[in-house]
Amino acid sequence: MSPQAELAIVRGLQRALDLQRLRMMYQPKISTRDGSLRQVEALVRWTDPELGAVKPSDFVPLAEEHGLIHELTQWGLRTILRQWLDWREVGLDTCIAFNISALSLQHLDFPDLVERMCRALDVPPDRIVLELTEGATQPLVKLMDALTRFRIKGIGLAIDDFGTGYSSLMQLRQLPFTEVKIDQAFVADVPSSRDSRLIIQAVTELAHGLGLTATAEGVETIDQLRAIRELGCDEVQGYLLAPPMEPEELPGWVFKFRRAWPAMIAEEKLALWGDVEA
Q1: 274 band by pLDDT with thresholds 50, 70 and 90
Q2: I need a surface site. Which of 130, 217, 228, 272 has the fewest CB within 10 A?
Q3: DSSP class of residue 234?
Q4: What DSSP character marks residue 102?
Q5: What does the alpha-carbon distance between residue 88 and residue 229 come to, in Å, rounded to a whole number?
Q6: b vs e for 239-254, b when ≥16 Cβ sit within 10 Å of the residue's Cβ?
Q7: Mean pLDDT highest for which of 24-28, 103-107, 268-272?
Q8: Parallel, antiparallel or unpaired: strands 235-236 and 22-31
């Protein structure tokens, strides 16, 4: 990306924050045990009048680089907290996960800020899960105090894209996570690859041994869902179950999915190690 293009995105993002042009979409995370809704992941979306749709992978790193990430994070937290209240009004009580930058943890008062925001809107802190990508966790070891304070306040912590870095096991042992999200690269070929099954099973068992929840990302086919469910993973997320959706769509989706779930798992179980690649 050229410097001119980066500058246009940075300026556009500041305008979007000032003019409330960002919006949030939500993707469900489902229990493999009974198909119930366990969480939704909040995903920032931005369509600029001049730039068009801008991907988070483009604007989030620039927000970090140019000092906009704290403002973006606060906007996101306010949005999801208010959304939780709206859902509660229609009888839907679920946890909301939101990805944060490691840079936010360098603000010593960040855990207190999140707690104050929850209290101000009367949202239980344990309905919030903060997700951190594995690539960001290396410096987080130095910020153990901030992460521990989140856990003391009841706020969940998830490590995202697990399996894509080099020091994963050390991170799980040292940092107070509550959830491990297995990267979709391992999920994609789990119906046919013995190696992927072994990895998912090992990560799931490791997570359970450490008292963590294991979630599989990027589930797009019935065969992937059934294999992951058989391997003991706790939760699944992906386009097979639901794409990111507008907040007002979620209550209706929950009703429809409850009816669809039994058919998704009705056939006999897949052979755990049968007909897979070496």
Answers
A1: very low
A2: 272
A3: S
A4: G
A5: 29
A6: ebbbebbebeebeebb
A7: 24-28
A8: antiparallel
What φ, ψ does residue 73 adopt, rounded to 5°? Answer: -65, -45
Q: Which residues contact 199 (CB under 8 A, 6 or more apart)?
A: 163, 186
For residue 14, the model assigns a pLDDT of 97
For 128-156, the pLDDT digits (tens) are 999 987 555 556 666 788 899 999 999 99
Cα–Cα dist 73/47, whole Å: 18
Task: Measure the CA–CA gap between 64 and 136, rounded to whole angstroms.
Answer: 12
pLDDT tens, residue by residue, 72-122 = 999 999 999 999 999 999 999 999 999 999 888 888 899 999 999 999 999
Give the whole-angstrom CA distance, residue 203 versus residue 183.
11
Q: How many CB atoms lie within 10 A of CB 129?
A: 23
Q: Which amino acid is present at 118?
A: C
Measured between alpha carbons, how far is 18 from 21 in angstroms, rounded to an integer? 8
What does pTM read for this prediction?
0.91
How far apart CA 144 and CA 147 sit, in angstroms, is: 5
**Mean pLDDT value across residues 184-202:** 93
Looking only at Cα atoms, what is the longest distance across the chain?
56
